[in-house]
Amino acid sequence: MKIAIVGVGAMGSRFALMLHKSGNDLVLIDGWQPNVQAIRQQGLQADFNGKAVTANIPVYSLEEVDQLQGYQPELIIAFTKSYQLDSAFAKIKALITPQTYVLCLLNGMGHESILKKYVDDNHLLLGITMWTAGLAGPGHATLFGNGNVELKNFGSEGKDFALKVVDVFNDAGLCPKYIDDPKYAIWRKACVNGTLNTLCSILDCNIGELGQTQEAADFLKTIIAEFAAVAAQEGVNLDQAEVYQHVDETFHGDIADHYPSMYQDLLKNHRKTEIDFINGAVWQKGKEYGVATPYCTLITQLIHAKEELLGV
Amino acid sequence: MKIAIVGVGAMGSRFALMLHKSGNDLVLIDGWQPNVQAIRQQGLQADFNGKAVTANIPVYSLEEVDQLQGYQPELIIAFTKSYQLDSAFAKIKALITPQTYVLCLLNGMGHESILKKYVDDNHLLLGITMWTAGLAGPGHATLFGNGNVELKNFGSEGKDFALKVVDVFNDAGLCPKYIDDPKYAIWRKACVNGTLNTLCSILDCNIGELGQTQEAADFLKTIIAEFAAVAAQEGVNLDQAEVYQHVDETFHGDIADHYPSMYQDLLKNHRKTEIDFINGAVWQKGKEYGVATPYCTLITQLIHAKEELLGV
C-alpha cells in the first residue's frame, strides 16, 4: 500500500519500520528538522526489541511537501502530537485527494473534528493502538514489547478500505482488529491516559508507585466517572467498573515501572503535553454539555501550570 | 506572666524568645527529643534578624511533664504541628487547672474541637499570627521580618484575660490586637494556606512563580469559593473578593520568593503536612454540610499521595 506517515516521532517510527519491512511503499513527513536530517542521512534507526535496525525511507519536512507533487498516497497515517495535528494537515493538504484515506490512532478526543476539515467522513478511519514506543533522539526510536491496533471507518462508508488496512497491518505484525465502536475504544483508552499520565506527571512517580498510594482508587474512580458523564453525552456509555479494572491492572502489570509518555514529555524533556486532548477535552466538552468535571479541570490546570513553570 | 509553650518548633521558638526577653516566666515543652536536648545543652538559639541570640529557658520533653508538678502556668500556648496537638495535650493535661488559659494560633481549622477536650470554652483563646519563622536544626530558629497576632477569647467569658495577653504580647513586641471575630480571621488565613501552601507544594515552585502562571487566578478563585461555601455553614461569611486580593498580593510582595511551610515540610524535609487541617478540613466539613468541595478534595488527596511517595 502507498502510505504517508505524518509525524515520525516514537510511534510514527514504529509504524514506519514495521510497514516498510512488510513491503509497503512509504513516505515519511515530519515537522522537526533535526529528525528529518537524521533520517535522511542515516536512515530511520531503532533499537527493535534489542536488535539494531535501519530502514531507508524517503523523508520530507512539512515545508518540503510540494516536492511530493504527483505522489498520491492511498493512506495517510497521522502520528503528530495532538496539538500539531491541525497545522501539520494544513501543510500536507495538497496530498489529500478524494481517493485518500486518513487514519488517526492518536490518544485522546477531538482529533476527528480537526481531520474533518481535511478529509471526508467516509475517508476517515479512527482507532487506538496499544503499541508503545520511545524516541532516543532524532531519527532513533526504541521499540519494545507487544501491542495491537483497533480501527474502523468513521463514516458509514469506507469499511472495505478499513478491512484492507487491517490486512496490511496484519502483514506488518501490527496485530490489527476491525472493531464496531471506535469511539468507545477511544474514550476507554483516554481514561487510561487521563488517570495514569496526568497523575504520574503531577506526583512525579511511575505507574506502579501511583498504584501503591492509598488515594489511587479514589483518583481513578472520580476521574473515570467524569469521563463517563461526558462520554454519555456523546452516546458512548462507558462501563466504569470495567474501565477501572482495566486501569487498575496496569498497577500490577508489565508497565508498572514505566513512566507514562506525558511524564516523559513534561518532566524529562520539558515539552508541551497533550493534556488539552485528554482531561482538557473532557473539561471543554463538559462545559458545552453542562456537565461538571472539577477533577479534569484542576488536573488540566495543574499540568498547564507545570508546563509554564518548566518554561515549555 | 507564667507561660508554658507546648511545641518549640520554628514559631514556638519565636514566641519563646520574644516573651522571654520581655521578662515572662517561661517553660518550654516539646515532643522532639533532639530539640529538647539541644535547647537544654546550648540554650534556645536563633538568628534573629541577622543577630545571634541565645536564651536559657527550662525545657521538658512531653514525657517529662510530671517533673513540672506544682508549676501552674497562667497561659499555655499551643505551637505543636496540628496533627500532634491532640496527643501533646493528652500528655500535658495535668498542667491544666480550672484557672489555666490555652491560646491557639495554629493555621487551619478544627483545633478548637481538639482543645475543648482539655479546657473550658471560656478558658480558650483563639487567633492567628502573621509572624514567620524557620528552623535551621534542633534548638536553632531563623527569625526574620515583621508580623502580628490577632486573638480573642473563644467563649463568652475570658475577655479580661485575653486583653491581659494582648498587653503581655505587646510588651514582647509581638504586635497583638484584640479582634472581634477570630473565626473569620482563621478562615481568611486558611485561604492563604489552602492556596499558596498546597499549590506550591504540588507544583514545586515558590509563591511568586505560582503567581506568574496563567492558572493562578482560577486556582485562587475556585479554592476560595469552596472555603467560603463551607465557612458560610459555620456562620462565617468570607468576603471572597477581599480574600482573593489578600492572597494575590503575596504574589508581588516581600514573600514572593518564599517557599511556603508546607513546601518545606513536604519537599525539603519529607515531613507530614498539615493538609488535614486546611483543605482537608474543608473537605470533611463540606461532607458534613453537604457542600461539594472537589478542588479541596483532590488537593488533599494529591498532598497525601505525595507524602506516601516520599515515604513520610
Automatic annotation (TrEMBL), chains A, B:
MF-aspect GO terms: 2-dehydropantoate 2-reductase activity; NADP binding
The enzyme's E.C. designation: 1.1.1.169
Enzyme class (EC, first level): oxidoreductase
Pathway noted in the entry: Cofactor biosynthesis; (R)-pantothenate biosynthesis; (R)-pantoate from 3-methyl-2-oxobutanoate: step 2/2
Domain Ketopantoate reductase C-terminal stretches: 184-307
Reaction catalysed by this enzyme: (R)-pantoate + NADP(+) = 2-dehydropantoate + NADPH + H(+)
Keyword Oxidoreductase: yes
GO annotation, cellular component aspect: cytoplasm
Keywords: NADP, Oxidoreductase, Pantothenate biosynthesis
InterPro entries: 6-PGluconate_DH-like_C_sf, 6PGD_dom2, ApbA, Ketopantoate_reductase, KPA_reductase, KPR_N, NAD(P)-bd_dom_sf
Entry's Gene Ontology BP terms: pantothenate biosynthetic process
Residue intervals of the Ketopantoate reductase N-terminal domain: 3-153
Stored SUPFAM superfamilies: 6-phosphogluconate dehydrogenase C-terminal domain-like, NAD(P)-binding Rossmann-fold domains
Family: Belongs to the ketopantoate reductase family.
Function: Catalyzes the NADPH-dependent reduction of ketopantoate into pantoic acid.
Name of this chain's protein: 2-dehydropantoate 2-reductase
